[in-house]
Design goal:
It is a single chain. The chain has 254 residues and is mainly alpha-helical. The chain has one domain.
């Protein structure tokens, strides 16, 4: 398994598109966070919560980009036919699928960890230099939010990996992965609300629930799941999707 993991890591890091997406996933949220902290750090209402909201909000772009890397990590293999020699070398397809998934998920989490770490340390330093007094200990949700952002990236990568195994086509898989949280969940959630008249139903859409992992505050009157329940639910959906995709890969020709 270690040789498989090493092989999949080499494949992932030697693709130019993955480097481009990873760089954007790091630079975009950090640029938003650090520039805002540097410009608005002298405002009286700039606090630890403000900094956390900046990191959380801008990191959603990273989540989609890192998920896109996970999607293409499997679809590009089918598109270029390189999955055939891989399966020929390792007849146990399940081992290959697991190795690819592990590398995609942990790579996404590692990159997101870099983003939140630099965002917190750099944003606080810039805001403090502008006269703000950022007390991170004043926010009880600091660590749950930061951990949630990292977990969200990993689960979204697993979700995208499952879509890639099911569809196999890179453009179609990426389109589904991007449009599902941005468009489809809103439409489906709105339709379910009209049918059920329950405001809690749309909150159980997979990505909408997953985004609660990175929510800075969840009100007591909120009708959706708690942070922990939302994470478990989104993780279960992502794992089920990946398991279905793995089953399809085992059943179909390479």
């Amino acid at each position: 398994m270690m040789n498989l993991l090493r092989s999949e890591w080499i494949k992932l890091r030697t693709v130019t598109m993955n480097w481009v997406l990873a760089i954007i996933a790091i630079v975009f949220p950090l640029a938003v966070t650090l520039i805002t902290a540097g410009v608005n750090g002298d405002q009286s209402d700039f606090s630890a919560r403000t900094l956390m909201e900046l990191i959380s909000g801008s990191s959603f772009v990273s989540v989609l980009l890192l998920g896109t890397i996970a999607v293409s990590s499997i679809t590009s293999e089918f598109g270029f036919g390189t999955i055939r020699p891989t399966f020929a070398a390792v007849p146990r397809r399940a081992a290959v699928i697991v190795a690819k998934g592990v590398v995609a998920v942990f790579s996404a989490m590692a990159i997101q960890t870099i983003v939140v770490t630099i965002g917190v340390i750099g944003g606080k330093a810039l805001a403090d230099s502008r006269g703000a007094s950022i007390d991170m200990d004043s926010e009880s949700t600091l660590y749950p939010v930061l951990i949630g952002i990292v977990l969200l990236a990993g689960l979204a990568a697993l979700f995208g990996y499952g879509i890639g195994m099911l569809i196999r086509n890179t453009p179609a898989s990426i389109a589904v992965f991007i449009l599902w949280p941005l468009l489809a969940e809103g439409l489906i959630g709105g339709l379910l609300f009209v049918i059920t008249r329950s405001s809690s139903v749309p909150e159980w859409m997979p990505f909408r629930a997953g985004f609660r992992l990175a929510a800075v505050s969840i009100g007591s009157s909120d009708s959706g799941p708690t942070r922990v329940v939302a994470g478990i639910y989104f993780g279960g959906v992502s794992l089920a999707l990946a398991s279905l995709g793995a089953w399809m890969v085992n059943r179909r020709d390479a």
